[in-house]
TrEMBL record:
Role of this protein: Involved in pre-mRNA splicing and cell cycle progression. Required for the spliceosome assembly and initiation of the DNA replication.
Composition-biased stretches (Acidic residues): 575-585
Cellular compartments annotated: Nucleus
Pre-mRNA-splicing factor Syf1-like N-terminal HAT-repeats domain sequence ranges: 78-222, 325-485
Name this protein carries in UniProt: Pre-mRNA-splicing factor Syf1-like N-terminal HAT-repeats domain-containing protein
Biological processes per GO annotation: spliceosomal complex assembly
Biased composition (Low complexity): 586-603
Source organism of the structure: Micromonas pusilla
Entry keyword Cell inner membrane: no
Residues covered by region (Disordered): 1-35, 575-615
GO CC terms: post-mRNA release spliceosomal complex; precatalytic spliceosome; Prp19 complex; U2-type catalytic step 2 spliceosome
Family that this chain belongs to: Belongs to the crooked-neck family.
UniProt main location, coarse: nucleus
Length: 721
């Protein structure tokens, strides 16, 4: 045995003998494009043209009976072998049967069809092709036998019935056709089957039989389609009375069906065609009154077109309202708590003028109570009750029902959780309009007892003031302050009431009690009202004392500025003089005011202008000193005070020295940076802010001059560039 790398005799082979050499790749020297370019389309076309034709078996010519028998035996063997392998394939059976049919051997063809049906009798195509073979060769009885077996085995296949009936009718066998239809109708086919039966009887003008078929048809399929077809048949014969009777029977039978709206429309259109518009209008109105709103859309659409053609303006408007009513019904049915839809719905009914329908919609709307006892859910809902009450009062003009609406609304509101002052107030105002003052007082008293609110007290007090019951007003103010002693607005209005009655001491006592409270909701309003009251009374000493008391409580810069402005301002003149000034010319009024101020200064030295200026300046000095000592970090407040002081000096004409003195106290504004941190303390960079350096702080900032020099050098350098 030769070893690896040896010849057949054991000789060594040279290594070059086993080496495989590959041709050297040709290098393309000229890479320029060829003058004639070949496209991909051209390559595909040439390949298609050069493609060889597929192989076709040669045609065989049979010359004698022996060759024919041999050919038939060969083909039958091929088909039988194929059937044994794929008996479930229908196409093989069909090809086999059709081949036997081409050989005019119908007995064998029938045998093949029968064998195929034994394997799969549910195949519709096998039955159809089997019957078509019998009919095409005019084997009527055989075809009739095939169809009869097909409809017995597969009675739900409508095509078998149609083909069977068509064959019998083409042969003129009307009795057989009718018998087949009767057999078919026992299986209760769909609309098309019944319609085919009707058409068959119609072709032979058997009207009595047609009506009998329609009677059975509408019993089998009680639908709008069946009844309308029957009515159209009667109308085609010109029998209006019978057609109307059919529609009437249909309405009675289909009254509770889903698609009855289409029947009403067809009935009305029939009456319209026979020139009976009043009957058609009555049908439309009956349909709209009895149909659910969501199913009446098509009826409304048809009714609108009808009224545009036959009706007047009022009828057209009624139809439009009806369409809108259907729309709102769908919205409120989809979301019963959609109060905006209820608002639109009730407003439409009010504008339409039908009181009973509007009342019905309001009752349905208020029945949808919010699911939770939270005021935010009730805010929109409560306006349904308010609109309902206003409708009963203004439109229906029924005060008893209005009173009942307010009563039921107040019963429904959960007053322990929240209440609505508007409802209480409107109910009381309604009773006042009805001249039932005791009922109005009772409603407001119940409101105060169940859920007292400031608006209710204000309404009650205004009512008693208009009636001149001062003692009742005082009692109500006392009750309001007893329930809520921290309400500054109630204190101020109580004092203003006493002031309007010229009860100065009572008003002052009320203010004193109010400012003595430890806790107030808006103390600044109360103090301002107290100071304005004393100012109007001309009590400078009392006003000054009030400012001093207020400064003991707060050192706010606005209080100091107001105090200084008060010291500068002359006391208020008599109210009668003020009224006269409003009616005089500006020059005359100014002269009159100056004369009055001179008279006041002569009577009281404190009212002289120089004294008032010095007092105001003293307040500014005290304020600046207080802010420095008590609030050293409130630099912006000090700047605000100094600016007000400078404006004061410029306004009173104190001279340039005074203004310059204030200017020396003004700080310089500088821009600085400070670090900022996130919520968890992580550094987040820096931010710029403005700080104020006051003159007395210059020594505490030794590096400020260096910083100023650096800024000055930078500005000069920027200017030179």
């Amino acid at each position: 045995m030769a070893g690896v790398g040896e010849g057949p005799l054991g000789t060594k082979l040279h290594s070059s003998a086993t080496k495989v050499s590959y041709p050297r790749p040709t290098r393309v020297k000229n890479k320029a494009p060829a003058p004639t370019q070949i496209t991909a389309e051209q390559i595909v076309r040439e390949a298609k043209e050069r493609q060889e034709e597929t192989f076709r078996a040669p045609k065989q010519k049979i010359t004698d009976a022996e060759e024919l028998a041999e050919y038939r035996l060969k083909k039958r063997k091929e088909f039988e072998d194929l059937i044994r392998r794929v008996y479930w394939n229908e196409s093989v059976w069909v090809k086999y049967a059709k081949w036997e049919e081409t050989q005019k051997d119908f007995a064998r063809a029938r045998s093949v069809w029968e064998r195929a049906l034994d394997y799969n009798y549910r195949s519709q195509s096998l039955w159809l092709k089997y019957a078509e073979m019998e009919m095409s060769h005019k084997f009527v009885n055989h075809a009739r036998n095939v169809w009869d077996r097909a409809v017995n085995l597969l009675p739900r296949v409508d095509q078998f019935w149609y083909k069977y009936i068509h064959m019998e009718e083409m042969m003129g066998q009307v009795a057989n056709t009718r018998a087949i239809f009767e057999r078919w109708m026992q299986w209760e086919p769909d609309h098309n089957g019944w319609n085919a039966y009707v058409k068959m009887e119609t072709r032979y003008k058997e009207w009595a039989r047609v009506r009998h078929v329609y009677e059975r048809y509408v019993q089998c399929h009680p639908s709008v389609k069946a009844w309308v077809r029957w009515a159209k048949f009667e109308m085609s014969l010109g029998d209006v009375a019978r057609c109307r009777a059919v529609y009437e029977d249909a309405v009675e039978t289909m009254e509770r069906e889903v698609d009855v709206d289409q029947l009403y429309v067809k009935f009305a259109q029939f009456e319209e065609r026979v020139k009976e518009p009043e009957r058609a209008r009555a049908i439309y109105k009956y349909a709209l009154d009895n149909l659910p709103k969501e199913k009446a859309r098509e009826a409304y659409k048809a009714f609108t077109a009808f009224e545009k053609q036959y009706g007047d303006r009022g009828a057209i408007e009624d139809v439009i309202v009806g369409k809108q009513r259907v729309k709102y019904e769908e919205e409120v049915r989809a979301n019963p708590t959609s109060y905006d839809s209820w608002f639109d719905y009730t407003r439409m009914e009010e504008q339409h003028g039908d009181v009973e329908k509007a009342r019905e919609v309001y009752e349905r709307a208020i029945a949808n109570v919010p699911p939770q006892n939270e005021k935010r859910y009730w805010k929109r809902y409560i306006f349904l009750w308010i609109n309902y009450a206003l409708f009963e009062e203004m439109d229906a003009q029924d005060p008893e029902r209005t009173r009942e609406v307010y009563r039921e609304c107040l019963k429904l509101i959960p007053h322990k959780s929240f209440s609505f002052s508007k409802v209480w107030i409107m109910a009381s105002q309604f009773e006042i309009r009805q001249k039932r003052l005791d009922a109005a007082r009772k409603i407001l008293g119940m409101a105060i007892g169940m859920h007292p609110k400031e608006k209710i007290f204000k309404t009650y007090i205004d009512m008693e003031m208009q009636l001149g019951n001062i003692d009742r007003c005082r009692t109500l103010y006392e009750k309001a302050l007893e329930l809520n002693p921290f309400n500054c607005s109630s204190w101020v209005k109580f004092a203003e009431l006493e002031k309007s009655l010229a009860e100065t001491e009572r008003a002052r006592a009320i203010f004193e009690i109010a400012v003595g409270m430890d806790q107030l909701d808006q103390p600044e309003i109360l103090w301002k009202a107290f100071i304005d009251f004393e100012t109007e009374e001309g009590e400078r000493g009392r006003c000054r004392a009030l400012y001093e008391r207020l400064l003991e409580r707060t050192q706010h810069v606005k209080v100091w500025i107001s105090f200084a402005q008060f010291e500068l301002r002359a006391m208020a003149l008599n109210n009668d003089d003020d009224d006269d000034d409003e009616t005089q010319e500006p020059e005359a009024a100014a002269a009159r005011r100056a004369a009055a101020e001179e008279a006041a200064a002569a009577a009281d030295p404190e009212e002289a202008e120089p004294r008032r200026v010095e007092s105001a300046r003293g307040v500014y000095e005290r304020a600046l000193r207080s802010l420095k000592e008590n609030q050293p970090d409130a630099k912006e407040e000090r700047v605000m005070l100094l600016e007000a002081w400078r404006a004061f000096e410029e306004g009173v004409g104190g001279g340039d020295d005074r203004v310059a003195e204030v200017e020396k106290k003004m700080p310089r504004r500088v821009k600085r940076k400070r670090p900022i941190y996130t919520e968890d303390g992580t550094p987040a960079g820096q931010e710029e802010y403005y700080d104020y350096i006051f003159p007395e702080e210059q020594g505490a900032a030794p590096n400020l001059k260096i910083l100023e020099a650096a800024y000055k050098w930078k500005r000069q350098k920027t200017g030179d560039e």
